[in-house]
Write a structure and sequence with these properties.
The chain is mainly alpha-helical. It is about 60% helix and about 5% strand. The structure holds arginine (ARG).
């Protein structure tokens, strides 16, 4: 049977394999709500512009509402022969309202239709992700405030570097997620232009009102160039770029959770809620959720790479290649949403092991920089020389297998005669973090202040749960 949407030109139906490669209904049915909203805005505008009679427009709008409830009730039968969500809905509309249904597609094409539907979906999904990210920030900032003064090792190269506080570490992620959110806000602004009315590629000769449809769908304005409106998918790419960076951030936090809850580190305790056991080793409590968050960044990047590759080299305007924009984007953004939910749960759930953190904070001569700074501040030594003197003292401690504050004064004085008893006042980890009061530094007073600033800011956002 030839296709009823374009059957005029076709004598035969498609080969089975053609139907299989061509159909997108298996995944683009996700866009039914946006498709129906777009159609309703379009037909209302057609009636207002007297392009379609009022009663036909009403019948169409009513039919679209019926279809919406059929789909939501799970009573709609999607057909692969009808290829995609747009034709599935239009075919059902014809069954419901008869020949008037055929007037809906006046001054419109599936090209501007799909571009509109997908923009709406991506925009609304970014909004949801942003809300979720605000929830994660809230969980992190809450932990930060509660543990503003808990010392832990700060690392570079995963080697003990200088003591920091647990709260400071949590707030580092709050900042990163804050930038992810601002990227989402930015992308949203750019994508919020309405393609509807660009028609196939060149616009239309009907006296449509693109400003009205744009407004009805919550867009800021109609897209200014009809070719661009139907040909670009940079809005999806920006969403996936933003998602990739956010997934990378979550993956780093997940990796830290994995390391921290190992027996060797023992920095945090995760409850049974986000861990699994082993079928053979009874002692195990594996951080599977964190591992999966770490892993899923891969599929988010994959979706970005796939779509960048699909789009490169496509001549303007629409090509069917662009149908490949949806499936992986759906998958990537759904998985990112899952990752945010899981990591937020883990952050809420984790309890820092204060004793182990403090012990680890003092190991690896983590206050060596404080010793060097003392030599500069009190003895007026140039920093490079202080670095050298400190290195020699660290060498003594390492030879004897003792911590820095356990090195006797005489031994320090043998390295530099000017060193006094006062030096011990900077060698404890608590003193070390307390002294880091420079703006953005790890001192507990700073951390408390920053945590409260974030908590206040987040509580002002209506969406932060
Ligand atoms: N299912 C198609 C897509 O997702 C809709 C647009 C089809 N347009 C066309 N000219 N064949 O891209």
């Amino acid at each position: 049977m030839s296709n009823r949407m374009w059957g005029g030109r076709f004598a035969e139906g498609p080969a089975a394999i053609m139907e299989e490669i061509n159909a997108s209904i298996g995944y683009d049915q996700k866009l039914y709500r946006q498709d129906i909203a777009g159609s309703k805005a379009h037909v209302r505008m057609l009636a207002a512009q007297q392009i379609v009679a009022g009663e036909d427009a009403q019948a169409i709008a009513h039919g679209l509402d019926t279809i919406l409830s059929e789909i939501e009730a799970g009573k709609f039968e999607f057909s692969r022969a009808l290829e995609d969500i747009h034709m599935n809905i239009e075919a059902r509309l014809a069954e419901l309202v008869g020949p008037a249904a055929g007037r809906l597609h006046t001054a419109r094409s599936r090209n501007d239709q799909v571009a509109t539907d997908f923009r709406l979906w991506v925009r609304d999904t970014l909004d949801t992700l942003d809300e979720q990210l605000a929830g994660l920030q809230l969980a992190l900032a809450t932990k930060a405030e509660a543990h503003a003064g808990v010392v832990m090792p700060g690392f570079t190269h995963l080697q003990s570097a200088q003591p920091v506080t647990f709260g400071h570490h949590m707030l580092a992620y709050v900042e990163m997620i804050g930038r992810d959110r601002s990227r989402a806000t930015d992308a949203r602004k750019r994508m919020n232009e309405c393609p509807l009315g660009a028609a196939a590629l060149a616009g239309t000769s009907f006296p449509i009102d693109r400003h009205a449809t744009a407004k009805a769908l919550g867009f800021d304005r109609p897209a200014a160039n009809s070719l661009d409106a139907v040909a670009d998918r940079d809005f999806v790419l920006e969403a996936l770029t933003t998602a990739s960076i956010a997934a990378m951030h979550l993956s780093r936090l997940a990796e830290e959770i994995v390391i921290w809850c190992s027996a060797q580190f023992g920095f945090i305790k995760l409850s049974d809620k986000y861990t699994t056991g082993s079928s053979i080793m009874p002692q195990k409590q594996n951080p599977d959720a964190a591992e999966l968050v770490r892993a899923k960044a891969g599929r988010v990047y994959g979706a970005l790479m796939a779509l960048l590759t699909v789009m490169k080299g496509l001549p303007l305007a629409y090509s069917k290649d662009m149908q490949e924009d949806k499936e992986q984007a759906f998958d990537a953004l759904a998985n990112l949403s899952l990752c945010i939910a899981a990591i937020t749960g883990m952050v809420d759930d984790m309890e820092p092991n204060v004793k182990a953190l403090k012990k680890a904070a003092g190991s690896g001569y983590s206050t060596a920089t404080d010793l060097a700074d003392w030599l500069v501040r009190v003895l007026g030594m140039p920093f490079r020389q202080a670095h050298h003197v400190t290195g020699t003292i660290v060498g003594i401690a390492a030879d004897r297998g003792i911590e820095l504050h356990k090195v006797p004064l005489e031994d320090m004085q043998a390295v530099d005669a000017g060193i006094t008893e006062d030096v011990y006042s900077v060698l404890s980890v608590d003193k070390s973090v307390k002294s880091r009061v420079s703006y953005g530094g790890t001192a507990p007073v700073n951390v408390r202040k920053q945590a409260r600033r974030w908590l206040k800011q987040l509580s002002r956002e209506p969406e932060a749960k």
